[in-house]
Amino acid sequence: MLRAAQLPSLPGSTGTMDPVMTTTATSNAAGSAAWADTLLLSFAQAGYVRAEPAILQPAEPFLDLSGEDIRKSLYLTTDLSGEELCLRPDLTIPVARDYLASTRAGQPAGFSYLGPVFRYRSGQASEFLQAGIESFGRQDRAAADAEMLALALEATAAFGVNDVEIRTGDVALFNALLDALDLYPVWRRRLIKDFNRKISLEQDLERLAAATTATRSEYEGVLAALAGSDRKAALAFVTDLMSIAGTTNVGGRTTAEIADRFLEQSTLKGGALPREAITVLKRFLSISGNPDDAVAELRALTADAKLDLTAAIDQFESRVGFLAARGIDVKLARFSTAFGRGLDYYTGFEFELHHTGNGAEPLVAGGRYDGLMTQLGSVEPIPAVGFSVWVDALTRIGRKVGA
Length: 403
Prior knowledge:
Layout: H1 19-45, E1 49-50, E2 56-58, H2 60-65, H3 68-71, E3 76-78, E4 84-87, H4 92-100, E5 109-118, E6 127-136, H5 141-158, E7 164-170, H6 171-181, H7 185-196, H8 201-209, H9 220-226, H10 231-245, E8 249-250, E9 253-254, H11 255-268, H12 275-285, E10 288-289, H13 291-305, H14 310-325, E11 333-336, E12 349-355, E13 362-368, H15 372-375, E14 384-390, H16 391-402
């Protein structure tokens, strides 16, 4: 038997589902049905098989792998064995888990879906429809990325919405730059975390540039013990400390997050992030515009800084070519090296489609997440890319456009 769902991270919330919001969501779902049927038919015609993962999911993958916004909005519960479960807040991880449990795991396979997801959203329905596509196992990454964006544009067109802005980024370029700069691993993790959480990287870069040797901490002994440790050793050390204390989290932070924070502070004791690296990072993060121009700027940056990002830039340029081959006017797409979607599992291409003039709410969003499958238990890496369609938002705008 399951106890009432809870939202421990949301002050003032009981965590129970709001019946008014649920009724509203059900009504909206009914109103979206005709559009959604058309959408699913187009996905099926493109070769994507319908997937219907369970609504109740293990909470751990979402807590470990999703972005902070999703983690804080989960509806959580436990079963009699003590396993923590949640109502699915998104369909990418559930579809991926079902694929890995199937006989097709490791082979190229494409899936489409349509169903309710559940997230706490202040002032909005906590249950809402999500549709989308997930593509697994394709080695032709640039072509698969381009296919996702093309199908995403077809999805908005299915709702009668053709006036959209295309926003793209590529976290693989950022990761490749950090590798080329040969930063301390803890600095690399911190900058990637900032990037994924859409925190101002420029502000954090300035903090990392400041001298930290004079900073005192109530955990000086712990920091000294961690000096020179790698992440595995730091995690084992902090796990032991928390086991002695009889706890598994502090202030909502997991053992891994606490270990990362201690390791970060310990590393910073040894000195600041080099000014030369900050200069390169700032120049990199300022690159934006149409993809063709961005490729030229990236190659100029790497030549000036004497860094090798050839493989990542070549992959980016190849994707641009496949986008053009699919009839997408790449000069109308906005690319930014600083663009990120706030989800920790993305590893490459990322994109959002917005109704022109609406900067805040994406209609379709997705990207590449090659690392997720091994994090979910796959022995071998499996390429993966996909997108989600915000059905209610598209329905609402489609009605206005058609009015």
